[in-house]
Amino acid sequence: LYLFGTFHNNGKMTPFLIAVDSSLNIKWYKAFNHNLPNLNITQMLKVNDSLVLVSGGHALKSAECSSRNCNFFGLFNVKTQSFVWSKSFSQTCSYGTFMDIVQTSPTTFILLAHRDDCAVDNSGIVKIDINGDVNYQKLVYVGSYYYNVCSSTELVGDKLFISCTSRIIILDTLGNPISSKFINFGSQFWPNKIIRDINGLLVAGFYMAGSDCCPRPHHIMIYKIDFNGNFMWAKRYEFNLGNSRAFNITKDVDGNFLVAGYIETSTTSYPLVLKIDGNGNVIYARYWNMPPTGLSNMAKGIIPISQGKFYLLTYLSTGGVDQTQGFA
After folding, report:
1. How far, in Å, CA of 99 to CA of 78, rounded?
2. Quick check: helix, strand or coil at residue 63?
3. Residues facing residue 197 across a β-bridge
4. Which of 126, 135, 107, 3 minimizes the C-alpha distance to 48?
5. Rounded to an integer, what distance in angstroms lies between the CA atom of residue 224 and that of residue 89?
6. Whether residue 227 has pLDDT greater than 90
7. In whole angstroms, what is the distance from residue 318 CA to residue 294 CA?
8. Which of 162, 194, 266, 320 is most buried, with most CB under 10 Å away?
9. Whole-angstrom Cα distance, residue 206 to residue 219?
């Protein structure tokens, strides 16, 4: 099992890779020096038993990216513990952080950027081959609202579904638009992960009852669309303990879904797992009161192993350093 992430040290974000066995004993770990102001790993995709493709960047707000590299993608060999290659778009008005990766063939991939640095009404997609060479790059219009960011994508056949703050965008694998459906949650829903179900797609994130500057209270929210992007249903999950957010959702071995996130009190946050069926009905919800008190402890990644068992990757923090809300 390989864990790719980012640690904060002396005011700089640095990526790392940890290899663990099935009992979570560390086999080896490695950090990587870089010349960017910060570098956050947001996603990884297994290509084969030796290679993983990783993506990320170092900023969310376009003003932080002006004339600087805001994105990163690279092919890593886990056997040699080194990058085969790593690249970024260095020109002015580059893409923002790459938030997600999908594989379109054994040797081609599409990267999703949360926002173009200058054309702030757009997200961006970049198709690359196994050598990191660009097949095409295109802007994707997401709306004029400043907080309209796109965070996750899922490939279903020859359709690419992109979840953004207030809409679902569908493209073909050449990057041509098929449809763009407005999802009427305004700026109050922040999507973090989209995943395919048998009859549609689920989008997991959180709903903010407050304004943009003061989003609390906020609660886990999941909605579902069909394969044409039409809205099916939405459900909010509120807990007596306090606010909650969902960062990840994956299909369990029994066909239901596991949602990873956190629930918080006034003093700390606890990792939370919510299990739901394909209609959003709760099968169970569980959080873990894990030390240390006073720190944020958020569940970012979840991997099912067998019935009733899963790996849960959590993130400890004393503040909001994880600005992209990424996971590995």
Report:
1. 21
2. helix
3. 200
4. 107
5. 34
6. yes
7. 8
8. 162
9. 5
pLDDT tens string 186-211: 667 888 999 999 999 999 998 877 65
User: Tokens 């040797």 sit at which residue?
Assistant: 107
Contacts of 50 (CB under 8 A, 6+ apart): 77, 78, 79
**What is the distance between the alpha carbons of residues 250 and 253, in angstroms, rounded to a whole number?**
10
**Single-letter amino acid code for the residue at 19:** A
pLDDT, average across residues 222-226: 96
Report the C-alpha gap between 113 and 175 in whole angstroms.
13
CB 236 within 8 A of CB 219: yes
Contact 152, 163 (CB under 8 A): yes
Secondary structure of residue 62 in the 3-state scheme: helix
In Å, how far from its chain's centre is CA 142?
Answer: 18
The CB density around residue 118, as the number of other CB atoms within 10 Å, is 12
Question: What's the whole-number average pLDDT of the chain?
Answer: 82
By CB neighbour count within 10 A (0-12 exposed, 13-18 middle, 19+ buried), where does 131 fall?
Answer: exposed
Residue 148's nearest CA partner among 167, 162, 133 is 167
* Residue 65 backbone phi and psi in degrees, to 5: -100, -5
φ, ψ of residue 288 to 5 degrees: the values are: -120, 120
Q: Give the percent of the chain with pLDDT over 90.
A: 40
Task: Answer for the pair 271, 299: CB distance below 8 angstroms, yes or no.
Answer: yes
DSSP string, 67-135: TS--EEEEEEETTTTEEEEEE---SSS-B--EEEEEEEETTEEEEEES-BSS-TTEEEEEEEETTS-EE
Which residue type occupies 306?
A: S
pTM as predicted: 0.87
**Per-residue pLDDT tens over the stretch 101-117:** 999 999 999 999 876 65
Q: Assess contact for 4 and 17: CB atoms under 8 A.
A: yes
> How far is Cα 152 from Cα 196, in angstroms, rounded to an integer?
12
Query: Which two three-digit tokens encode residue 217?
Result: 């209270």
**Tokens, residue 328:** 């590995």
How much is the pLDDT for 248?
93
Check whether 224 has a pLDDT greater than 90: yes
Counting every residue written for the chain, the total comes to 328
Q: Which residue has the tokens 């990840």?
A: 248
